[in-house]
Amino acid sequence: MRIAFELLALPLKLEENRISVIIIENRPFFRQFLSALLAEHTDEAGIVFSVDFEPLKFKGNITVIDNYNNLELSSGFIKKIYENMELFCFNELLEETFSLKKEIISFTDLLLSCYDYDFLCKNDVSLTELFKIQNIKPNIKSSQLLENILEYILLIQKYAPQKLFILINLHAYFSNDELNAFFYEITLRNIRILCIESCNFEKTDFEDVTIIDEDLCVI
Question: How far apart are CA 95 and CA 103, in angstroms?
């Protein structure tokens, strides 16, 4: 996998078993670059991700994580989990699933027959809608922030596999000892990570670093 943009003379290769890092010391360019990633407007900003030299669509393939204290899951991702749970119910809990549906339909029929107005309703129960009503969500609540980030990445990779995760200013939050353990787990699972940093730092053994300095020169 590769990332290319105007300042890079050659595309930067993003390896599975290494952590790629781009340090952007020029703050206006850092803001511009980050805004393009968060808004998923990479094409307009001239940022191109590719696999086997074929351009890769950003949405659905790349996840940007910039708020480590609030790891939100999109409604689309939650829907994928509900669909997976529904399939599990029909494969592993078929008898219980049909029993539940029957009870809900019977209760609804009883309610409408007793109520003082004529109503219509569906004659089937959607499990995904039921899961949504119950507000079923993954429980990510480790006391260790970096463990939460790892669990978050692994959860997304299980239900909606991504080609790349982009982490913003990770070194501002964690020590090298913490990151070494985190990067070990990431590389062990062949997950591609790109770190975007705004300040220089002492790199870990897992990282390959490219620097864009104040004068927008690439080192």
Answer: 12
Q: How many CB atoms lie within 10 A of CB 98?
A: 13
Which amino acid, 162? Q
Joined together, the tokens standing for residue 79 give: 């829907």
Residues facing residue 164 across a β-bridge: 62
Cβ atoms of 136 and 119 within 8 Å: the answer is no
Closest CA to 66 of 161, 159, 152: 152
C-alpha 186, offset from chain centre: 14
Q: What is the pTM of this model?
A: 0.88
Measured distance CA(40)–CA(91) in Å, rounded? 37
pLDDT digits (tens, 9 = 90+) for 167-215: 999 999 999 999 999 999 999 999 999 999 999 899 999 999 999 999 8
DSSP-assigned beta bridge partners for residue 148: none
Write down the residue that tokens 């006391």 correspond to: 143
* pLDDT tens by residue, 75-111: 889 999 999 999 999 999 999 999 999 999 999 999 9
- Return the H-helix or E-strand segment holding 55: strand 54-55
Count the Cβ atoms, other than its own, within 10 Å of residue 55.
11
CA distances from 7 to 46, 71, 166 (A): 10, 31, 19
Tell me which residue has tokens 């770190």. 195
- Angle at CA of residue 34, ends 204 and 198, nearest 5°: 40
Query: Partners of 12 in the beta sheet?
Result: 3
Structure tokens at 118: 């004529």
